[in-house]
Design brief:
Rossmann fold; about 45% helix; 7 strands; 7-stranded parallel β-sheet; about 300 residues; alpha/beta
């Protein structure tokens, strides 16, 4: 999607962290911004930032797991700003880190509900409207680096993010030949409030009786005094990266080159796991649609982010 000026962005989880960073980048690019978030108070707190800058903004309280509410939110967005051009499925939650077998069904339902069903709800509610109006459009979903390379004791989070990556890769493939593109955003550590907001928004019926108390680090594992915040990317920079990816039609939007080596190890492991046996050319001809997808060839290297 090349032309962003005057277009409408519908961003979920936009009242905090990465979603807010994306919303700011959209406002700066001259877009009309819908801040959709389940926390009304947080929406009210961020709207003045946009209003003071003179950027068109409208807040909608929305729980992305509620399909009826999603359709109403899309209607409201269209009645306020007109056609939606950019859908950003960014709302997400985490659950306490622990081995999968110690997780609860409440953990499963909460995280699958928001991180997967919430994104499906967004796409199935809004994408047909975008395809119908026919103007240039784009869908971005926020996954995570943890969907590409797994993190110890975080099976549920990693599973939901890996699902989002597969979902968006397939969506990008399905959308080829239309006026709408698709990207998956896989950020590394960014300044945000995921732990706190995940606790705050977790519905009563999906609460755990008790959550594990994180173990204190053993004395010899204690980290030296260090300001980790210096190593986190700002949400504003993450937002700019997302918009660059939208303009470039990137399949993957990434943040930290430091993750490259880990991914190489993962893909090497997969390649090593193939049995050593001859290749059948007839099999390749018949199953070429399973063997590779041309969507992967569309990805090029974006280069360093130019900030003003
Ligand atoms: N911050 C990071 O380091 C990081 C890294 C990788 C991926 N992510 C992903 O980025 C996204 C944003 O994370 P963040 O760190 O900015 O968190 P955040 O807590 O700052 O923002 C998330 C927002 O989503 C909203 N939200 C939660 N459940 C919702 C629901 N059901 N409906 C609507 N809104 C809902 C929250 O109210 C909150 O405002 C998440 O999908 C997260 O998994 C974050």
């Amino acid at each position: 999607m090349k032309n962003l000026e005057g277009r409408v962005a519908f961003i979920t989880g936009a009242a905090s962290g990465i979603g807010l960073g994306i919303a700011k980048a959209c406002g700066k690019a001259g877009m009309k911004v819908i801040i959709a978030d389940v926390r009304q108070q947080a929406i009210d707190e961020v709207l003045p930032y946009f209003q003071e800058k003179g950027w068109p903004v409208h807040g909608i309280q929305l729980d992305v797991t509620d399909r009826e509410a999603y359709a109403k939110a899309a209607d409201e967005a269209e009645s306020v700003f007109g056609k939606i051009h950019l859908l950003v499925n960014n709302a997400g939650v985490e659950v306490p880190a622990r081995p999968l077998w110690e997780s609860t069904f409440e953990d499963c339902d909460f995280i699958v509900g928001v991180n997967i069903q919430g994104i499906l709800n967004g796409i199935i509610t809004i994408l047909p409207r975008m395809l119908k109006h026919g103007e240039e459009g784009h869908v971005v979903s926020t996954a995570s680096e943890s969907g590409l390379s797994v993190v110890h004791n975080c099976a549920l989070y990693c599973m939901t993010k890996a699902a989002v990556i597969a979902l968006m890769e397939t969506l990008a493939s399905d959308l080829q030949g239309t006026n709408v593109g698709a990207s998956v955003f896989c950020p590394g550590p960014i300044v945000g409030n995921l732990r706190a907001t995940s606790k705050e928004v977790r519905p009563q019926h999906l609460q755990n009786d008790s959550d594990p108390v994180p173990p204190a680090p053993a004395a010899d594992q204690e980290m030296p005094e260090f300001d980790f915040s210096k190593l986190l990317m700002s949400a504003e920079e993450a937002g700019e990266r997302v918009l660059r990816g939208v303009r470039r039609q990137d399949l993957y939007i990434l943040t930290h080159t430091e993750f490259k080596e880990g991914l190489r190890k993962k893909f090497d492991a997969i390649l090593r796991a193939f049995p050593d046996q001859p290749i059948n050319d007839d099999f390749i001809k018949l199953f070429s649609f399973l063997i590779t997808n041309p969507i992967y060839e569309t990805q090029t290297t974006p280069g360093p982010l130019k900030t003003e």
